[in-house]
Amino acid sequence: MAIKAVLGSLTAITSIIGIGIGFYFTYVPWFELDDGSHFSLNQAYNNCQNDLVAFFASEDCAGVESMWLAGNGCCGLSLLLLIFSLLLLVIPSRRKETTIVMNTQDSSQMWCAECPECGSLNAGTMKHMEGQIKCGGCGVLHSPESLKKYDP
Q1: pTM exceeding the 0.70 threshold for the entire prediction
Q2: Residues 48 and 78 in one domain
Q3: Is residue 100 included in any domain, yes or no?
């Protein structure tokens, strides 16, 4: 259980770092032009979408498109990994097993019922307590309303 939490946390942290690296690589201006200005890979990709630029700089645009795809791929795969790791942390690893206890009647189990007349406890097995029973204290015949386990 602890291994799952540690692996899930490390995977989540790694995927967040991957999203940051992919975002920085693609959307933060880090290309430097001859005049000293900077532009992002996404801006270069958008420029390459122009037919005229793509015609004259087809090799450069192919490299820019490859790097743009790699940066966005890093973001996308890291996002999928983050979702997977968060699901790994949230979903329990095992089902909790429930034990079903069958209510089996032991033939030697003693049961008791209270007499409605004198209040004394009359004990016997389940077979003896069926129907009407005769009170051991006052001798009145009565049907027990409820039975309780009797432990002598």
Answers
A1: no
A2: yes
A3: no
